[in-house]
Structures are given as structure tokens and as C-alpha cells.
Write a structure and sequence with these properties.
Layout lengths: L1 E5 L2 E3 L5 E8 L7 E7 L6 E6 L6 E3 L7 E6 L4 E6 L8 E8 L8 E5 L2
Parallel strand pairs: 2-10
Antiparallel strand pairs: 1-3, 3-8, 4-5, 4-9, 5-6, 7-8, 9-10
Length: 113
């Protein structure tokens, strides 16, 4: 199993980023996928989940209306579109499978003026 996140970077408050997580080594289309983030010195925090087939999507309250999780099963990729970014969104973002807990290496998002 391999999960490779990309798309992180340094942006100003209010700007956008799209994170990607390319998966391999398992049946992606039948796997629930999630995004988590970890702020420095804090535990990893759940951000969003999309079920296999995309029929159910959930977000942590702090990102509702700003972030959108989606998936492209043909590309074995899950995305996190992040709009109206805030300072507090700065973190390392990880994708994860469920129920088997496989994690990517993370991608750094920094929101700074």
C-alpha cells in the first residue's frame, strides 16, 4: 500500500490550495478515504472523509464550507480542495485509508502573510 500526498505549499490567508493523494497497492474504489492534519505539537486531527463511491462526505466543523473532499477512482486519487485558507489551517496534511489504517507521508500547508 502506498499513499503519496502532494499539493501543499505556502499561501496567503484567503487563498486556495488543492491537495492530492495518489494511492496504489489496494482496491482504491472500494476504500473509504480521509484527510487528517497535524498542527505542531498537537495530535493528528480528522478533517474530512469520503466513502467509497462518494455517497457520503463529512467534514470537521472548522472547515465546513471552505474545504471539499472528492475522489477520482479512475486515477486512484483523493483530493482536498481548500479555499479561504486561514492561519489555523497551517499543518501537515495526511490522507488515510479505512478500515485498514494506512497513511501517507504528509504534505505541509503553511498559511502566512
Amino acid at each position: 500500500v502506498q499513499l503519496v500526498e502532494s499539493g501543499g505549499g505556502l499561501v496567503n490567508p484567503g487563498e486556495s490550495l488543492r491537495l492530492s493523494c495518489e494511492a496504489s497497492g489496494f482496491s482504491f474504489s472500494t476504500t473509504v478515504m480521509s484527510w487528517y492534519r497535524q498542527h505542531p505539537g498537537k495530535e493528528r486531527e480528522w478533517v474530512a472523509t469520503i466513502t467509497d463511491g462518494g455517497g457520503m462526505i463529512n467534514y470537521v466543523d472548522s472547515v465546513k464550507g471552505r474545504f471539499t473532499i472528492s475522489r477520482d477512482d479512475a486515477k486512484n486519487t483523493v483530493y482536498l480542495q481548500m479555499n479561504s485558507l486561514k492561519f489555523e489551517d497551517s499543518a501537515v496534511y495526511y490522507c488515510k485509508t479505512w478500515p485498514d489504517d494506512h497513511w501517507g507521508q504528509g504534505t505541509q500547508v503553511t498559511v502566512s502573510s
